[in-house]
Amino acid sequence: MLFELAYFPSVFSSFFPPPTRFYWTKIGGAGTKMSNRMVCREASHAGSWYTASGSQLNAQLEGWLSQAQPTAGPARAIIAPHAGYTYCGACAAHAYKQVDPSITRRVFILGPSHHVPLSRCALSPAEVYRTPLYDLRIDQKVYADLWKTGMFERMSLQTDEEEHSIEMHLPYTAKAMESHKDEFSIVPVLVGALSESKEQEYGKLLSKYLADPSNLFIISSDFCHWGQRFRYTYFDESQGEIYRSIEHLDKMGMGIIEQLDPISFSNYLKKYHNTICGRHPIGVLLNAVAELKKNGVDMNFSFLNYAQSSQCRNWSDSSVSYAAGTLVVH
């Protein structure tokens, strides 16, 4: 999806990732026999979408997190953006501030597919995801359980490394969980262009994981992509300038998400066609919530921050919107 690249001209290199990397672990004392080969996904967008320096990245994340406030109750799920950190890092911090590392043992990361057509959801071939802070381990038991359902496909390592929607959450996940970094695993899921019925199916499947307080769900999504380059120029003149119309449109959708009603969110998208790139991961979350609500689970979702990459005033302008929110289970 080239529109997101427009803001990051240096990232074209990430479309041509280096060959597969492996970890090799020695066994048998001083012997040279190698075993336990682990496929490793490189931090392919480090150095372009965010700094590759671990110390600089740590300082940036700490700075943004220090400006955010915790709300009541730890997050069971968050929605946060996936653009370059220069644009959305401060916004994302408001969601990650709600994570409680002392109770979180598994982090599901649901991101939309930008580069490959996908009608279902896909799992990574990797076992380890690298970040400039420290490496994150994929939960192979949960992966095996998901694979057994027959509802998932396997993405290639190249597809995984070209995609940024999951990777942009890895450094923040590592930072939020650093006090318990050896005690948690991740479950990355690439979400395709799902039909409403498939969003419901995946929501139902994942609802049992959402019900577990030791699991955290991260839903990766930017909000309105506005401008001719995005082929989306909705404008409600009654709101004043273009950027205010965009904000009104986004906040209308955010308010519907806060209602935790997947049908209302789907109807909103059909009516306004807002270019929310993570609409399918959001739809999966809303359907998982709806499944739990049938069983009497009490939850609420609140958006905590909203930002735009720039303020559009003319038809030649363009912007991407970002929102951060948290789901709390009572």
Automatic annotation (TrEMBL):
Transmembrane portions of the chain: none
Top-level taxonomic group: Eukaryota
Pfam families reported for this sequence: Memo (PF01875)
CDD domains: MEMO_like
Family, as annotated: Belongs to the MEMO1 family.
HAMAP family registered for this protein in UniProt: MEMO1
The protein, known as: Protein MEMO1
Organism encoding this protein: Sinocyclocheilus rhinocerous
Source lineage: Eukaryota, Metazoa, Chordata, Craniata, Vertebrata
